[in-house]
Design brief:
Length: about 325
């Protein structure tokens, strides 16, 4: 029986690693698996980015160490960048980090990105009509969709547009990269389909008569998504979903590679498959008052952060049989 390997002996192995090929990497480039050899013995290394520090004193040196910062785009209050954390990056040094900057940010942004407990709620049609729909209308009236309109009206991000379909009609839409995608990694492809029409705020506004339009939208964006990496993505490797509650109230579709690891934004209680929505709409029946069948007639269950307005001012109060007031 050989003696246990010492710490220094273990540390001496890494410099001896000879790379053969890359086996895999996750969608955000945080983890990569490498096949190679050490002293003619097959070896496999998994490299993963260490966790970021969580206290302010340790984060300050991280921010001050950023170099080689390159802006990928900017629209209204949103900007996104690639950067290095290396002290002396050269032309061949790949970016270490992707950064998103929101400035000036609002209290809603702060709440969204803060650590918080979540609650699973059920939004019935009466709750939607009484509380949520008026809230959605009030949010749109605040003018927080300017960055969307900048894109739709051709003022920003036009060089990123992958597809513009039926743009001169009410059924028009465009497809462009989501700001959270690094725009290079195939398996982490994340695109955004923005519709031209401004009368659909969320999936709640979808009606049975929208089915042909939704089918055409899905077919077109899936086909366009395969052209982003020609020959590397097939149509059955693309999935489409819609968020509810969405981050902003202008109807849009997320178009991603099926290998994109399913984090919170793709989980049950946040993401609704576009294909399933279409199927559900095909089978809805008119209401008792003769109104057209649609997503406004069904119960929807989803999760909310405890810091969100909808939890604190609506569902949390409904749970405690308190008065709901989303206007203050």
């Amino acid at each position: 029986m050989s003696a246990p390997e010492t710490k220094s002996e273990a540390e001496a192995l890494l410099p001896q690693f000879e790379l053969e090929r890359v086996l895999n990497q996750d969608q955000d480039g945080r983890r990569i698996s490498l096949l190679g050899s050490i002293s003619s013995q097959p070896a496999l290394i998994t490299v993963e980015r260490a966790a970021f520090p969580s206290d302010a004193a340790a984060v300050k040196p991280l921010l001050s160490s950023l170099t080689n910062t390159t802006n990928l785009g900017a629209n209204d209050i949103y900007r996104w960048y690639m950067a290095n954390q290396s002290a002396s990056p050269n032309a061949n040094t790949p970016p270490d980090l992707k950064l998103n900057l929101i400035c000036p940010c609002t209290s809603k942004h702060v709440a969204k990105y803060s650590s918080q407990r979540c609650r699973y709620v059920t939004e019935t049609p009466p709750i939607y009509n009484t509380y949520i729909l008026p809230y959605i209308r009030s949010q749109r009236a605040l003018g927080r969709l300017d960055w969307i309109y900048n894109i739709l009206d051709g003022r920003t991000e036009q060089e990123d547009v992958i597809l513009r379909c039926s743009w001169d009609t009410l059924d028009g839409f465009l497809l462009l990269p989501d700001l959270n995608w690094d725009r290079k990694t195939v398996e982490s492809m994340h695109l955004l389909g923005l519709v031209q029409r401004r009368d659909i705020y969320s999936l709640r506004d979808l009606r049975k008569s929208h089915v042909p339009w939704l089918k055409e939208l899905r077919s077109s964006v899936v086909k366009a998504a395969t052209s982003v990496f020609p020959g590397q993505i097939e149509e059955d490797e693309v999935k489409c979903y819609v968020h509810y509650q969405p981050t902003y109230y202008h109807f849009h579709v997320h178009v991603v590679h099926v290998m994109l690891e399913a984090g919170t934004t793709q989980s049950v209680g946040k993401a609704f498959s576009l294909e399933n929505l279409i199927s559900q709409l095909e089978y809805v029946v008119p209401g008792s008052d003769g109104q057209e069948g649609g997503m406004h007639m069904v119960d929807l269950s989803y999760f909310l952060g405890e810091e969100s307005e909808l939890w604190k001012k609506c569902f949390g109060r409904l749970k405690n049989s308190e008065e709901v007031n989303l206007n203050n």
